Amino acid sequence: MKFRTLAVALGISTAALLAIPGSGATASLQTGTERVQSGPNKVATRYLNQKLTWTLCGDPEYRTYCAKITAPRDWSNQYSGNDIDLAISKVTPTSKSKKKPSRVIFGNPGGPGGAGLGMAPYLASQAGLGKDHLYVGFDPRGTGDSANVTCQGAPGFTMDARDRDSENLGLISEAALLTRPYCERQSRGLLPYVNTAQTVQDIDLIRQLLGYEKIDWLGYSGGTWLGAYYQTYFPAHVGRFVLDSNTDFTRPWSETFVAQPQAFERRFREDFAPWAAKHDDRLHLGSSPRLVIRTYERLRRELKKQPAVEEFLDGSMKITYDQNTLDQIVASDMYTKLDFQSLALDLAFLRGLSAAQTTGGPKAAQHKVDALPLARQQELVRRATSGPIGLPPIGQAVGDDAESATFTAVTCNDTAWPQGREVGDDLAADLGPKYPLIGWSMNENPCFYWDRPAIEMPTPTGKGLPTTLMVQSAHDPATNASLAAAAHQRYAGSRLVTITGEGDHGIYGGVNKCADKIINTFLTTGVAPARDVSCKGEGIPAPSVPYSGDEPVDGAPLNRIAGFTKAVSGYLH
Predict the structure, then answer these.
(1) d(Cα 493, Cα 422) in Å, to the nearest integer?
(2) Contact assessment for residue 500 and residue 507, using Cβ atoms and an 8 Å cutoff
(3) pLDDT tens digits along 450-465
(4) pLDDT on residue 287
């Protein structure tokens, strides 16, 4: 189905983006009330003369060293004295030679706002990348061990997005409207400068401090956007770029998010539901995809009518399971097929929990929780309190507050959004009936009320660049495959690798052997496919029951990166 753009769907026009001048060696220009970030700013000498002090991060087995560098809060005003710290990581390849690696590869896990120190050890763990790269990760401004922004205390979206009552819609609007004041008040002046135009200049400062003329790049999800803009601002320093699970970086952010409801619904209905039905003898969610979906909808109604409030881990954690918790769990588990079994088990557990509460009251429901093994309770707590890994739907929590606040700042600051309550309500009313899993929540979006900084960025075109390798699964829920196709069509010199029969978000690193081989060849030799190619998906593994609590939950690439980041973070404070 061809998906309408935000502008077409709502009958409005999005702000035009300006084309970047050829070489772009100067900074911003004033045109009326807008500051056009037409190219990179010349770097003040004091930032280039920094000496990096490297500290071992995490266990020695990771071979990861971290440092902090100083960057201006605003690259267009480097002499204001308002500097920020940025955290970077590196892993040097194991070799007896003491020679400097011939190439450097930067990694970004997306978000935007995902902390990325773990990208260095993750890249180093990929045997197919060879031995001639220095592996580099970084926490973008706003998040992780770099200077943070925060929106703590801002009202969340606790209302039922499907409730179209005027009062409920008003509460959603008020929560979205209040988000920016909370973020701005607590972020010590940094919020307007958490955007892609500033971040790409941070990246190039890192490049210069490491002493490389060009960088290679592996960017997942929101990292495809960041990678494409780095290419646009710094074409002379572009090496081999891989963009995995693509936003449409040639259009405003709104285009990427308005395409999500259809993609999430497709993943749920065409991948998860048929898989669960196929294994109904083990999972007991329904013998057909239609019945599996009915199980979810019935459970959603029951949890809205009577939420289950339960204590876990000897009362140390209390979790409320309502319709919003259920939606968050389902949507979060669409990112990787490795979470399908956990989702099926959780749906069955919640169905039993709700039934126990209906028939026996809260004590009966709590008794079911208390009877669970400790490992199972720990897993339920983890899953109920964690956000998605990858580009989340607007309005859904992602990671810790700094990651979530950076996600909001970048997506709302970078490109123009149509403004006002009516826009969001109409969009939700249009997409909700067709794609109910997340379509109804499209009005839970602070960007519809965001006072953007007066900045416009150039449109990435790919012109004059080396080959860019784009990788995309056909049923990706977070970055709709239509986005990759559209961006590829408009991005000169790009090659698209499509994984058919696959829906994982984040491909490189073990999801598909065919894709890994193509990417490794490109990153190590510079040889890209002569034309667009496709790889066949490797299928969804059958469930294993009974659940033991020992099943791997971090096998997906983005989950592994998050694990590495957790292991090597916090050593610079």
Answers:
(1) 40
(2) no
(3) 999 988 899 999 999 9
(4) 98
Query: What is residue 542's DSSP assignment?
Result: P
Q: Can you tell me whether residue 223 is helix, strand or coil?
A: helix
Strand partners, 34: 31
Q: Which tokens belong to 396?
A: 């859904």
Residue 81, both tokens: 């004295």
How far apart CA 32 and CA 457 sit, in angstroms, is: 15
Q: Cα 413–419–425 angle (5° rounding)?
A: 120
Nearest one of 145, 122, 128 to 506, comparing CA atoms? 122
Is-contact 295 276, C-beta < 8 A?
no
Integer Rg of the chain from CA: 23
Identity of the residue numbered 399: G
Calpha distance 440→157 (Å, rounded): 12
The total number of residues written for the chain in this structure: 573
Structure tokens of 108?
A: 């970004």
**Residues in Cβ contact with 228 at an 8 Å cutoff, skipping those fewer than 6 apart:** 243, 249, 250, 460, 462, 468, 487, 491
d(CA 212, CA 44): 18
**What does the alpha-carbon distance between residue 338 and residue 503 come to, in Å, rounded to a whole number?**
11
Question: What pTM does this model have?
Answer: 0.92
